[in-house]
Amino acid sequence: MVSYSSRVAFLGLGLFTGAATAQNYWFSFGDSYTQTGFLTNLTLPSPGNPFGNPAYPGYTATGGANWLDFDTTTYNNSLVLTYNYAYGGATIDSGLVAPFEPTVLSVTDQVNEFLGTAGSPSEPVETTAWTSENSLFSIWIGINDLGNSYYLSDNRTSFDTTLLNAEFALVQKLYDVGARNFLFLNVPPTDRSPLMLAQSTEAQEMLKANILDFNSQLAEFIDEFKASNSGVTTFLWDANAAFTTILDDPTAYGFIDAVSYGTDVGYFWINTLHTTSPANVYWAEGVADVLSGSIW
């Protein structure tokens, strides 16, 4: 089996497919699965420092580098400058699903932050020289939305639609300021996380059904958005399938099992809800594979 360190060093999947000297911009939104702790009023991304702040790998929930870290620094064919607005605990909109504490920045807050900084027409071009062609916008959200609400309503399909309407209203705002390339990541099977395995079988089944409905609607929303807006390129990485593949046969991927957690080598889960940095190598690999061969 290939070791974790060897995978990072030698796997050569392409993210951006332009020349090695090309400079591309990645604007990322999401929750703790993506967060690195970026602050817009501190050092901005630049060659040699692709995340700007904080120092690599940032404040992640993985015990090390996360998927976005790996894709920005390793799995690409160009210089990638990543503005990571993701915030731990985020939901799509705190008015729809409250986060674990009121100070958490929802994706609504994150997109508004982008629109007031790098996405603002008044932003100096020499500071953030992104264009529709050289930029990618990614959103990985829904984990907390579903985890904090799956037990509150019998009509989950309707509420999932409400959540996704709110998300894609934000995607439309990004489109309106020039975003054309979008990466979406769906909700992984957190019903199989140690957090949920400590709950009743009924609770696990409820969350699983909710996740499947949300993910199904997400794919439909992506198609509808692309059909309704000219010049759009969309990508969808199936996080649910990727997690399921490993959880169904963890030892084949170098992990002890599918249920325990810890910081030592061999664990898939680092705590009751988040995956370890070695697991995030697989997520980065999967995202890079989805983007490989595209306009990037």
From TrEMBL:
Keywords: Hydrolase, Signal. The keyword Cytoplasm does not apply. Residues 1-22 form the signal peptide. The keyword Lipid metabolism does not apply. InterPro entries: GDSL (IPR001087), GDSL_Est/Lipase (IPR051058), SGNH_hydro_sf (IPR036514). Gene3D superfamilies: SGNH hydrolase. GO terms for molecular function: hydrolase activity, acting on ester bonds. It comes from the Eukaryota. PANTHER family: GDSL LIPASE/ACYLHYDROLASE FAMILY PROTEIN (AFU_ORTHOLOGUE AFUA_4G14700), GDSL LIPASE_ACYLHYDROLASE FAMILY PROTEIN (AFU_ORTHOLOGUE AFUA_4G14700). This is Carbohydrate esterase family 16 protein. It comes from Lentinula raphanica. The lineage of its organism: Eukaryota, Fungi, Dikarya, Basidiomycota, Agaricomycotina.
